[in-house]
Amino acid sequence: MVEKSYLETGNNKDARNGTDDGIGGDGDFDPSAPPPFKIAEIRAAIPKHCWVKNPWRSLGYVLRDVTVVFALAAAALYLDSWICWPLYWAAQGTMFWAIFVLGHDCGHGSFSNNHLLNNVVGHILHSSILVPYHGWRISHRTHHQNHGNVENDESWVPLPEKIYKNLDLTTRIMRYTVPLPMLAYPVYLWRRSPGKEGSHFNPYSKLFAPSERKAVLTSTICWSIMVLLLIYSSLVFDPVQVLKIHGVPYLIFVMWLDFVTYLHHHGHEQKLPWYRGKEWSYLRGGLTTVDRDYGWINGIHHDIGTHVIHHLFPQIPHYHLVEATRAAKPVLGKYYREPKKSGPFPFHLFSNLVRSIGEDHYVSDTGDVVFYQTDPRLRNIKSN
Hints:
Layout: H1 2-8, H2 39-45, H3 55-79, H4 85-108, H5 115-128, H6 133-145, H7 161-165, H8 169-175, H9 185-191, H10 213-236, H11 239-263, E1 274-275, H12 282-286, H13 297-300, H14 307-312, H15 321-332, H16 349-359, E2 369-370, H17 376-383
Antiparallel strand pairs: 1-2
């Protein structure tokens, strides 16, 4: 009963928009109101050529990224200096993230219209950075089909108050203290999120339909081969070198992945809604995603920051997302939130991340339109 009372104090004046007037930072605009346009209107505004997938262009990006990855590794091994290693880790971890985004395009089918090509390239790219391609692809499809739905979404889903209450204090602190949540991805692959069961590696997981088990098993085998290759390399060569060449960049990649995917769904200046039941729709859920500007990193990670249009139309290749977004903005109106322009590096986004993780703890167990609320006791503990 004591815990319930302190959680209920989280239903405070800033639960909706960060102010006590119920308005927020954009006049009288209510982001939870049903939009006055249909998804077909957005689709019609996007030029037809933006939907065209060019496999040669996609493969060109793969060649570019793979070349950079090997060039960075070769340079790091040649120089072998502790002055250079941190620079290598940052650069290579970012390139691992770029590799992931291309595999992500394969999973969506936006890489090409050739199903076999998508799967082969996707397996090679994702297995190289220890991601089970089909296991992730299927759960990510679930995320896209249910984005913004408290009950059915799959990625960075808000915890209902009841589940949040049952977390011990240590778990809460770990989940809501930067940078720990930025290392969550490997754990998510193995165990998913609190309140959800299953593993991305287990073909019999609740994540997958029986018809998908063979594909998931294939990806788990490919992932295992990569793990064995790293172990073998550690035995033949120096395990410390393998850690420096692949292990540390992998951790940087994980942090990039968690950083980017979190900020695409959280941390906007005005709190955005999550939905249940009849209030949720594919369009309304997609409109709660947020575009971000990453400065010089935009081109490196294939403009994945143009996330609203990607969420609504994941079939659009990444190299057309900027143009498609520009064309769709007049239709979207205030439902499109212009990203804050970045300098060369997106340092400004760290404040969004820290603020959101410090404030966005859970949502009410009831209600079909809900907003993140804050656990004041956790906030006080972390500030002391």
